[in-house]
Amino acid sequence: NFVLAVAGVIIASIAAFFIYELRFLRAPRLEISVPAKDITVSDGAFEVRGLTDPDADLTLNGRPLYSGKTGEFSERIFLVKGVNRLEFEAQNRYGKTTREARYVVLK
Fold this sequence. Notes:
The structure is a single chain. A hairpin with a 2-residue loop joins β4 and β5. The protein has a 5-stranded mixed beta sheet, with no helix packed on it. A 3-stranded antiparallel beta sheet has the order 1-3-6, with no helix packed on it. The radius of gyration is 20 Å and the shape is rod-shaped. The longest helix is centred in the N-terminal third of the chain and has 24 residues, at 2-25. It is an alpha+beta fold. Helices cover 22% and strands 47% of the residues. The protein is built from 1 helix and 8 strands, in the order αββββββββ.
């Protein structure tokens, strides 16, 4: 029974290691909550919000955005009249990237 218990601990340790390492092989999570979809607005000041992995580098149209310890972010931006493309990009330290785009039309 002791041999089986040791084998079980070894197998569980190996499985936990691979699960931990898989975390680094995937691209970071990027969820845009505002705007959740493409929208039309009448106010030129607009706040974007969302969530990413806490260790990801986040940009909006190439400009860095700060995300908190939990990965939440919020930024007030100013729109130009017409169509505004918001390109969000989250990149982890291994170079894996997730991109999301939203279009906001300012009337």
